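2 proteins. here.
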Amino acid sequence: MIKFRYLLFFILITKAVGAQTPTAFSTSKPWAYWWWPGSAVTETGITHNLEAFAKAGFGGMHIIPIYGAKGYESKFQPYLSDGWNQKFAFVLKEAKRLHLGIDMTLGTGWPLGGPQIRKQDAAKSYKIELISLAPGQNWVPTPDIKAASVYVNKVFVEDLVSLKKASFQAGSEGAQVYVFKESLTNQQVKRAAPGAEGLVMDHFSKAAFTQYRESFVPLLKKSHAPLRALYNDSYEAYGANYTPDLFAEFQRMNGYDLRVYLDVMAKSKAESDAENAIWADYHRTLAHLLLTEFTQPFASWIKQMGFVSRDQAHGSPGNLLDLYAAVDIPETEFFGSKPFDIPGYRVDPDYDSVRFGIPDVRNLKLASSAANLTGKKLVSSETTTWLGNHFKVSLAQVKPVVDQVFIGGVNHIFYHGATYSPPEVAWPGWLFYASTNFNPQSHFWEALPELNRYVDNCQKMLQAHPTDADVLMYFPMEDIWHERNGKGKTHPLDLHANSRDWMKNTSFGHWSEHMQTKGYQVDYVSDLLMKGLQPTAKRTFRTASGAEYKMLLIPAPHFVSLETMELWAKWVKQGLPVYFLEHMPLQPNSFGLTDEQKDRWHAARETMVMRWVSDPINILERYRISRESIADQGISFIRKRSPQGARYFIANLSNRFSEGMVRLAKGTMDMELIDPMTGVKSVVHANKDKEFFLNLAPGQSLLVSQLALKSKVQVIGDKVISPIEPLGQVTVSFPDKQLKSLVLDDLDYWTRDSLTHDYWGKGTYAFDFELTAEQLPQAKILHLDQVRDWVRVKINGVDLGIIWSLPYQIQVPAGVLKTSNHIELTVTNVSANRIRKLDRDRVNWKNFYEINFVDIQYKPFDASSWEVTESGLQGNLYFSNR
């Protein structure tokens, strides 16, 4: 076992409803979504699955029941039935034995909802109709109408419903009545499990959540550790924009009656700043309701039940920072494929980045910033969702995604995901459509423990220490709420293509990326979270959890609340470093401000007119904000703080650096480098400029920490390359003679032979080679060119281990190589060619209910027309001295 000098990384669950004895499990090991098709689980299958997950190095599983497989209806367990509850209790028993943690969705599929949701508790939308009345015409409102605002010559007169008027007669000039009706969205829970079908809950109503949660109380009272967290999946409540308390809450928050402006709400597009301000007041009210009526009660009730809350806030019309901050474990999402500039990195050509967007580290930081500001220890992420099409994803594609997620502040990875599959069901078993497969039927299952060890090694450090950010950047939610408004519209902040509008193509997006690429570590802050900041005597900002920030930057704000403006003005008067980028705030955020309040807003603005800058670089230098120059070299990082000094996770996710001199802003003369892939440690000594030599090829990552001891000055020689030339031909053999052996003149994919086109499995490349006496001392690392998709290396009978990630290289222990050598490279390919064969033969393995099984473009999955996926090895091999 690799030993690290960090804290203990087991969470002890010491209090849970019905808990018997504390149970230890790891949060530093990766967890995974564990879908239960039809809840058709058996005790034998549960044990089989959980033992496999534990052996592979998982820390825990997250149960999400979903639709089932056809032909297994007799085994379906209705959700929360006695049979289902018995299986869940057995899971907890087995997970405890295996030291696995368990989380569960508070429901099935997503969003929250089900048969317990009555119509009054279901998600709602509004509809506004215009009725024109002729002079003297009488009109009678029906009982289903929630508001009926009367206008004469475009001037509001009265709301008939709030005045309880049974009828209305137009005067001599006629009238227009804007009729506001409530309706159900009628959205059903997506991907619901048997027995859990039903309407989606009204997330703006605490009464609805109270009704919903009661169904879970009997189960939770009987449950115990290792059940840890209850979970809310991404919002995705389509069309939900109303709740019965909307008008009352709107008036309480904004000081005026929204029913006076139903004519504005009925327009297809807002036509003025005033109309956008009314819309912004509406959006702010919805966001407040979502926070106070659902997210906070959700977290509070779970805590009362003795468990932990985990929440995906994205996809909702709220301020994500506030929603993430309200729960114990905020969870973000890495959805889709990103074209990393790493030589050899593959992106699925079928991934539609226009439709789904490209994952962005700035989106991830909304969850981690909320956690950093509120002292949360864990930040989780749904990871590798739709990374590539089914049966094609390799671990070499997964690792850079994991590294990017770590850079974004995540320290608790959830693979998306692993489907429960009965051991008796033939390959490919039961699968969930929107995932990279991490269950035992996965083609990379044998190599997966290597990735899991890597994640464990990284997350041990990342969970042990708080993030060391110097700068806060204000997230201007008000600007989002003032744009693109119109009839029925909300502003759901999803992390997919929609984020172009509210993140990437905004001033905030520009400046947050600018700070990141310049090497500054930044956290984002909302209006609500700023209220918890306390100025210090050092003129810094301190959070309740003890973190300190040296500066607040406000990027190009347009609309700001009076409360926030006066808070900033107060801080400026106290001499705190508050700076506006590009321009000062332009307007108050709310339509409902009185003239006196508007005067106060402008007075606060006047006190800060000298605090705007076109570029923050000079003030960042003046306040000695730490800048990591490694960012200039294309190296990504996250810096942590500890009593022993700064600690870093660094990753080379570009092709701009391979080796050279680097400097860390909070480095010391002596530092320890740990390769989290292997656990190998090395010590480096910096020169007088605090620079040290770093070897970090594209795709590699390191953990860096300060050392108190003195080390020797590095002596860096030339890099020495020793090419490997096969003596004679290369043979490729297959286990149990499943295929005829191949004889190749050089290293090439075995799929050049058409007889291998349907094959998924192992193939061993073998040949002899020689090294000179001069080459032997320099041959320390073996490098491969193209690997499809992972390879076990043996040289002279010594098993060196597995190469599974970019760059394709492995350390060669001293004494293994001779002048005459034999190498065996056993490659395992992805299973794309085998599934292609099954679909060409029309094998009926896609037999699921609901959406059944779709491809990365959400079309019915069919691999029969796929091109053959290259498999094996190609290119040159060589040794190097580093």
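next one coming up
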Amino acid sequence: MRISPKAGATVLSLMLVSGGVVAGSVPTVASAQDVATITSAAAASELVVTDNYPALYGWLANSLGDATTVKIAATCGVSDRGNGTTTIPAQVTQLVGWQAKSFIYEEGEKVRDLGYSSSYETLTFAPGATTEVRSLTLGLLDDKLVVPAGANITFKNCTFANRVKIEKGGKATFENCTFSSGTILNNGQASYTGSTREPTNKGTAESAFQDLGLVAAQSALSDGVHTREYADATRLTLSGSNVDNVELAAQMDQQGSGLVATVEDGSLKVSGTPAAAGTYTATVTATAPDEAGTSTQTKSVTVSVKVHQNYTFSVEGTLDAVRTGQGDSQDSSNHELEVFVTDEAGNKQTYYDFSCTEEGHDFSLSPQVSPDGCGLNATLFNAGGKATVTLSGTAGTAGTYQVGAVATLGDYTFATNTAELRIYSGAETLASQIAGLTEGTGEWDMEPYEIDRSDNAVIPTWLHHIYGSHESGLYGQIGNATDAFASDTITIPAGADVTFENIKVNSSVKIVVEKGARLTLADSVAFGPIEVNGGTLALNRSSATTSTITLNDGSTLADSEVVSHAQFLTDGRKPTPSAPESVVIVNGNVTFMGENSIKPDQSQVGLEVNGSARVPLGSTLTVTGGNGGTAPGEAASAIKLNGGTISGEGSLAATGGSYELGGSGVPATAVMGEGTLSTGGLVLAGGDADTVFGSAINGADAGVKTVVVTTPAAGRTITGGKGVNGGKDGLGEESVTIREASEEPNGPTKPGDNSGAGSNGGAGAVSGTGSAQQAGASASDGASIPQTSDVASVSPAVALAGAVAALAGGFALHRRD
């Protein structure tokens, strides 16, 4: 026996469950060695029968595997004796005579003999098989080659030695075939083409007439939109014997739909403008003659079209103007737009809610920015009850851009309105931006919200409010930290009354408020100096400064909470500027109108008076000294008088600096220097001593002898600070020079003429350092000083001063490096 498998063949196995073949069995006449040899002849997609033993039955049973082509390369029987019927499985699409490659012959199709004239041989096909049989001479006896019901077999270039049998329900096509017997037993359907001569039928053939069939490739066309042009089509497939005589008609099933159904080039086409939202159907009817030709057959198919409302998609919100290179845009207060959907009845909802509905599932939404080049990323966030188009990243090319979104439904798009995004080059100045405003503009949202230079801008008298943002803690910025300190200016001219809100004015800029002008800083920070030349300044709502506020002659500080963060807050200037000695400086005649408080940072003097400060009737001025802490220097006095005077019928409260973690614990006087305090109400309190260590530290005196107090006794409360760990309490009225209104001095009295009775180990001497000295003697030395428990109740004025001072520290910002 010789086996010649195709080169590269792989081992396959077959399990047949038809006509007498047991799945996976091997004919009893074949040895185990034969089976192994046969198995090796299978290829991945074809089986080549290269020997006449075993019969085709054995090859299929043991070697077919997943092959779809069977090549008969040698004369071969169909079945061995006793095997019964051999069935070609439905997986076999080709059964063909073949010449295997050899030293003599090239590989290719060749007529081969299959089957013998043996009574035990029968060849048939599995139901559903569509096998093509080619180039074979089939030598089976009459009716032993069977085309069963459900099979549709094509024979090409075949010769039949005896009669072929087609069972009822079976079909066969014979192309260029020869019937040696001249007969066929056809109880099914047969067709003869090419050179085939139709044999005499010994059976009763079934009619070959096929009823009319009509199928649409799609049961539903694409969705449409009310009032918008629509057109779509689907392919129609006809079947049956009379397809060449078919008439097709199409119609819309609903009146007044606005749509038209037609049949064009074998397709159903629906077009038009939908008159209303809803679901519409189009029906196609095919009509053809019946088999007898005396009547007609009809077949219909229905296709649907869903029409949506013409929704309006919109965005709401504004976008902050930014500068080229500025990022991240999400740091701005206005960096997103919310998306809404409105139906034809005017009902409005968020796109998020719409997208959660069955109707909304058909739509998609994407953000859009045009033209290209803005550099920012537009992202759709559709969660948490709202949908937003959000900008992030770093701003690109300067220009004006439109930001919105586009909803999509199939081929339809729904563009939203757009919001304008302006990107500036970064070369803009405050002066140039103000010059571009329309005259008479009362409020301006600063843009871009970071402007590097003022260029000595002068605020117009008609501009009353400038916003860095509308969100507390989110700042617009004017100026920079690289140009020379205070080398640029913003001037508030006479007649102007303007508020800066949520703005950082960086240290390259000095603010100048001229006579007859008013500036209010609301929730803002000035890193550079503020100079008031006869105008009015107000700081409120957690505004702060890190430099000086200089009030020159004729100026007014009105209803202000002045808070300094000079020690620990910076705009990034390198090297970091040193904190100024004093926060507020008075030159000439200055008025403190309303409720004013000054809260310096560590080791800073709150108020320095070089001229005359007046607190009118009904007004209050509360000043604290900077505490000693981690910043350089010790605790500082609240007020420093350089020959100056604080007068008026209003009230003044001053408390010396005390202790913060990191400080020495040595407190300071409420007032230092040389000058006069002559207000309607007066509270002076030396700073309390405190320490985390156990050392004794004296409390600070209320003031120094070079300070004259003329406030009547009924209107003044002057106390020293409390000592700690056995340290002495500071002196009260004894530490200053009291001049009662009834006194009539003989000529001018120099403050300090009676200052010989110093206290607290020399604290509050004429030098005006304002700091109490650490105790160096026991409490029994000198006059007896009342201890903490002996001190009378603190007056309401002192309590008020402490509360106001505490509130003044409410502005919290990051410490600088």
